[in-house]
Each structure stands twice: as structure tokens, then as C-alpha cells.
Amino acid sequence: MPESSELPAWSSQFSLESLQELPLNGPLAGLSRDWAWGGSTGKGVSVAIVDSGLEYDHPRLEGQVRGGVIVEYDENAENKFRFIDDPEPQDLCGHGTACAGIIHALAPEADLWSVRVLGRDARGRAIQFAGGLNWAIEKSMQVINLSLSTGREEYYALFHQLADAAYFHRVMLISAANNIPAPCYPSLYSSVISVAAHAGHDPLTYYYNPAPPVDFGAPGIDVEVAWKDKATMTSTGNSFAAPHIAGLVALILAKHPDLTPFQVKTILVACASNVHLAPA
Amino acid sequence: MGNSPLEQENILIRQLRRLIQSIEAAGHSFLPSTDQVLLQSIVEAAARIFGAAAASIALIDESLQELVFRVAYGAGQESLPGKRIPLDQGIVGYVAMTGQPIAVSNVQQDPRFSQSFAKSTGYVPRSILATPLISGDRVIGVMEVLDKISAPSFGLQDMELLGIFAAQAAIAIQQSQQFDRIDVALINGLKAIAGDESPDLQACLDNAAQLAGTGSIEVSDLQELARLIYDFSQLDEAGRRLCIQVLRTFQDYRISRPNFLK
């Protein structure tokens, strides 16, 4: 089977045969990886992982978890959820810790915050998710990793509002594209950075996709990740592609803290592995 | 139909009783086997298309916080259905809790993999592809395929395809669950009408039991009602609310005019 057919719709543009080599002209051609994040460790950048929680004492996170919040579904609450402070977060299943481990490996001095919206209670997920995202924006997190999404049309406007709020507050939303081409919010909005998986394994190799809605392809197939109960494992999914880009964004923001989301996206495009200086 | 109104009422109550008994005896009488057969055909198709050794669907039992395997194909086809696993265990539990699909290539080394559970089914897989079954924004279960025969593991394209299968399965399950709930609601409603506790009604029923030659008009009316309720359940939320509002208005009117139906 050719490699392209091994990848789903959102990832097929990152297969070897359909990958576009893109020329770069003008002032953007002056942007290099070294300028963008050379020497950066992500120090001091706050990164929220909206997910199943973080295992704060997981060896792969090396003590970088600063705290967090649990967003619980609550039938009686005004917004159908409530916040519980979570100073020493745990992870109910491992998914959030896996994402955090990828970010930490790239940006070892970034501060990690747990926003737990997934868990045992399989009800009310979209509204918990929205509540958690809102929390992270209001707490002025600089980078928010969203390896989850909702397909519910009735949440379209709410998440759009949150994505705009993040954009205006200079909060970078890094959103995993759904694993199937279906409505998937907030990854389909133009202001977020939407990521799908490519088949490579080098954490610094990522591709720009000029055909929206997916912006970038990063490693997501058979990735070795941290897991619940201090374990590691090999796993596959767009969920693990997004944190690769989140890690790079943390590196960029540590070095250039005043950048806006569209500037960061521009830098990511200029430094992508398939974008090259146009021949003179 | 030469019966007096009282006799007709007694006949109705008796038929209600029979209907309740038959519904309860049959379990979920209206759409039982179809649902099971459909799910079975979905897992079979999935296993064949993916070239997988086995496939299964498990649904969440929210009251017990467990997953219950409903259907399986291939390895475990006989032993798996009916088996339960807590929501926070195993790869299925992980998928149910995160709502995210996952492909695991070396299952035995996966810390989430439940060895004891797999052994209890008599089948320990190498690779697993699992995807959530989502209804609205709720995870209602997990569909998984095990051991791709032609390759050591499942890829992203498999994940995408399984997602499409899962969407289909979720619709089938959602519809049958709505029907289950309607079954229960209907039974409760019928029980209330038949008034289990009332000694007077018991006397009425005893009376009714002596009457012969009951047509089944009322039963078919109730079945028509069940069909209508089912149709209503297929509407969107606004549509359902409107139907309830219309029925409630009618009910309010009926209560305010005791002689309305006489």
C-alpha cells in the first residue's frame, strides 16, 4: 500500500508523496529556527493542558507541574459545571500526562498546568471542556493544548467566542484535528493552530499545510508517551501531534514573549520543515 | 361493541395488564433483536474490512461505572458478550473516559491493558484499535478491533475508518436506547393507569377478567401510541418539547374537564 493511503484525510497531506515543498520570499525568509527558538527552554511560559489531568509527580514531567483545576459536571450549577482547585493534579487515564510529556520534552522549563475536563463522568463533556478552556484563558495561560474537541454544532458559537477571547488575549490555542473529517471544534476555527499527525518520529520535524483547516502536521504515529502511574507507552493519534507544536510555541514565546497568535503562526510557517528559502 | 362504558374500561385495564406483562416478559419488546443483529453485523463488517482477528462493542453502564460488552466477532465471540470491566480499567476504559480514539501496537506492554480481563475472555491480543461511540456529547461506549492480520499494528487510516463505523453504531445504539427508555416510560405510565395498588381497581380487574370476547382495539391503540412516541423521540429537542407541550396542554384540559371523555 502506498504511504498516502496509510494516513487519514487530515493527515494525508503530510504523506511523503503529497507533501508540498513551499518557497519562502520577502522578509519572512529571514526567519530561522535559530532566531525563533534557538537556546530557548520555554522558561516561565505557562502551558495549560486541557485534558484528563496531569500526573504531577510523573518522572517524565520532572516537577514542572504547577497546579491546576478540575472542572466537574454539576447539574445544579448555573453553567452546569464547577471548579475544584487542584494543586497536586492526578490523571484519570494518562492522556493528559502523555500530552504534557511531549510538551515538556521540547520545552523543559515551561510551567505545566492541569485543566481536567475529561474523566469518569461521561456526561456534560462539551460544557466542561468550554468551562476549562475559559478558565485557562482567564488565568492568562500563554499556551493551551487542546488534544480534544467537540463535534456538537450547538457549541459552535460558544467555542468560537472562546477562541476569539483567546486570540484577543494573546493566548495560543493548539488544537488537535479530529481523527476523522467531521465537525470538530475548536480545531476548525481560523484563529487556532490546528494540528494533524504525520508518520515521522523526529519531534522537531513538522510540516505546514497550505490547505486549511489543518495548519500543521507533527509526529503522532507510534509516539512514545508518558502514561498514568509513572509509566510510558507507545500510542497513536492526532492527540499526540498537537503537543509537539504546543512545545515549540512555548519555546518561541519564552524567547519572544510579546508575539501575538498570528505572528507565532507566521513564524511556525516560516520554520516548517517543508518551507524553504526561494532560490534567488 | 355492545359493552357499557364501565365494561369497556375494565376490558381496557385488563388489556393494559396483559400488555405490561408481555412487555416485561419480553424485556425490551419493541426493538430488541434488530438492535443486537445490527450491532453484530457492524462488528463483523469492521473485523472483515480491517482484516482484524476480532472486533467488539462495549456500552457504558453509568450506574455501575462499568463497560458491558454487547457484541463480539471472531475471537471472543462467544465468551465476551455480557462481560464487564470498570470504566477506569483497560484500553476500552481509557477510550471511554477520554472520548479519544487510540491505536496501541504492543498491547501487552501497555500499562493500561488489563491482563486479567483479557485472560478471562480467553484471548490476549497484540494490537488494538479502539474508538469511542459518541451520542451527542456523551460517550456511550467503545468499539474496538483487535490484531490486524496483515500488519503489526493499526494506523491512522484505520482509526479514521473505524470512526466512521463507530458513528453508525452509535446511531443504532442511540435509537435503541431511546426506545428502551420509551419502553420503560410506557410501562410505568401503563402501570400508573392500571393502578397496581388500588384495591378498587383490583376489584375492577377481577370483574374485567370475567368478561369475555375482548377485542384488541385498545392494545393496537397503545401500540399506535408507542409508535407515535417513538416518532416523537426521533425529533430534535425543540420538536420533542413541542410534542410534550401539546400533550401536556391536552392533559391539563382533560383534568380541568372531568367529563370531557365521557
List the helices and strands and how they pair.
The complex is a heterodimer of chains A (280) and B (262).
Chain A: H1 9-12, E1 22-24, H2 33-37, E2 46-51, E3 65-73, E4 81-85, H3 95-106, E5 111-116, H4 125-138, E6 143-146, H5 156-168, E7 172-176, E8 193-198, E9 207-208, E10 216-219, E11 223-227, E12 231-235, H6 242-255, H7 261-270, E13 275-277
Parallel strand pairs in A: 1-13, 2-5, 2-6, 3-5, 6-7, 7-8, 8-10
Antiparallel strand pairs in A: 3-4, 9-10, 11-12
Chain B: H1 5-25, H2 32-50, E1 52-61, E2 66-74, E3 84-86, H3 90-98, E4 102-104, H4 115-121, E5 128-135, E6 138-148, H5 156-194, H6 199-210, H7 217-233, H8 237-256
Antiparallel strand pairs in B: 1-2, 1-6, 2-3, 4-5, 5-6
Helix pairs in contact in B: 1-5, 1-6, 2-5, 5-7
Structure, explained:
The complex is a heterodimer of chains A (280) and B (262). In chain A, strands 4-3-5-2-6-7-8-10-9 form a nine-stranded mixed β-sheet, with helices on both faces. A two-stranded parallel sheet of chain A has the order 1-13. A two-stranded antiparallel ribbon of chain A has the order 11-12. Chain A has 280 residues and is of the alpha/beta class. Chain A is 26% helix and 22% strand. Chain A has one domain (32-274): Peptidase S8/S53 domain (Rossmann fold). With 262 residues, chain B is of the alpha+beta class. Chain B folds into two domains: 5-29 and 179-256, no CATH class; 33-172, GAF domain (Beta-Lactamase), CATH 3.30.450.40. Chain B has helices at 5-25, 32-50, 90-98, 115-121, 156-194, 199-210, 217-233, 237-256; strands spanning 52-61, 66-74, 84-86, 102-104, 128-135, 138-148. In chain B, strands 3-2-1-6-5-4 form a six-stranded antiparallel β-sheet, with helices on both faces. The chains are: A alpha/beta (280), B alpha+beta (262). Chain A binds chain B through residues 5-9, 11, 51-52, 92-95, 118-120, 122-127, 147-148, 150-152, 155, 179-182, 197, 220-222, 227-229, 231, 233-239, and chain B through 60, 62, 65, 87-88, 93-94, 96-106, 109-112, 131, 134, 136-140, 153-157, 159-161, 163-164, 167.
